[in-house]
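It is worth pausing here to work through a concrete case rather than discussing structure prediction in the abstract. The textbook approach is simple: state the sequence, then state the predicted structure, then interpret. We follow exactly that order.
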Amino acid sequence: MTHPLFDLSGRVALVSGAASGMGRQMALALAEVGADLVLADINQAGMDATAHDISQLGRRAVPVLCDVSQPDQIRAMFTIVDREYGRIDVLGNVAGEGMRGHPLELHEDQIQQSFQNLVVGRYIATQEAAKRMVAQGKGSIMSIVSIAGISALGRSHIAYSMAMGAV
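Step two, the predicted structure:
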């Protein structure tokens, strides 16, 4: 039995990056404690696998193709949340990828793309979730960051480190 502190029965969570890695694990963990989910990713096959595993736990999962670097896709995803569930209780901002390259060769477009994925995408998702959570009177938002935001991982990770520092 789940401890009442961690019981998310009747709650709805949206997790970006849910096709693999930390996003997948977060989605499964939320389902294990009773949440139904919206899964967001650009990898349909991975999301379908995550959705299948969530259904095996007796929970519902709605996979939505969404590129978190595209604000219009994020906003459209939230209209699906509204239509399918009518609420959102938990947002897990996990998705996003930083561009890699040597600092002397990295082009500013690559820096901007990293910020679009990791900073702007999280901001838009947070903004959309927060609008609904304020109206509901409650909700939780988790934005996953990396130690790279405060400590360099190596020269090829500068765009990622800068974006994680901004988050």
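Step three, interpretation. The first helix runs from residue 21 to 32. The chain is about 45% helix and 15% strand.
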